[in-house]
Predict the structure.
Amino acid sequence: MTTPLTETSTRLPRILVVDDTPSNLALMKGLLKDRFEVVLAGSGAEALRVVMSDQPPTMLLLDIMMPDMDGYEVLRRIRQHPPTANIPVIFLTALASINDERLGRDLGALDYLTKPVEPAKMLARVEAHVVAARRASQIEALSEKLARYLSPAAWHTLFHTDAVDRISFTRQPMTVLYADAGESSIWPVCGLAPWSADVASLAGSHGGTVDPFANGAVGVFFDEARPCVDMAVALRQCIGVLHLRMGLSTGVFDVARFQLEGQEQCTLIGPGSRQASELADTAANGDILLSPETRAAVGPGIPVDTRGRLLPFGGRPARARQSGAFRGLFALPADLRTAQ
């Protein structure tokens, strides 16, 4: 029995089934509904409205023979629109000639299934294509992100050799801390580097994982929300001189894991990875902002104002390691003291 395909969240892959015959739509919904979120469209025009919406499907199962606009024209328009051009499309049709299949594939169809469908075969192929399409999208997102950090040689080795096959992805619930400098003039001079080892130590003591690819800021993710809040408080106490602006966001995030120069690395990718940084952008200097989801996750014991700004409280932040940059904050080099 095939295990239902999920995304380690309440959201299932979204499959749009397009057919002008209501009985076919009902049949396909019955076959797919336990594994996917199923959206139905009875015409090509209706299908395009769904595809062009702010909640596009993960994949289309598209009939060819439909009045007004056939499946070929629907696919042409999808491929001509950059935001939707990469959505996988499987033709599901009674047409079975080699020329029909060739035309569909030439237009960019991923697969071609004939009616009447064999349920087990159809489900297996749809699930395989959803998994492959998701991985391709994740690889593309990771490639674009790391291109800003890696040397061309390291980037090429990771994405254009068999190393790419060893990249893994998980989607899991977590809370993310993102911190960047406020109006401190120290950060532009020296960045995070003098404090990076201590930030890693502080993250480790709270059970967090440092994201080393956070655009020069502090990025740490946690399995639970409360340790993330505790680290934010401890970080503000330890590096108050930087007037950090912090955002904490809770949700379901994509984590990429890969080998780089013999060491295992991990980083967040996808839209979820930007939520905490966008929250930090709206914070005042020295403030910690919690998303509504983070506030709900930590419960009523954490005092926040109406904006989600963390108020002083008798929390339990772990003691920071008093060495390295933290210990030397009050003995900064002369140029950095002047920069303050």
Q: What stands out?
A: The longest strand covers residues 245-260. The longest helix spans residues 119-146.
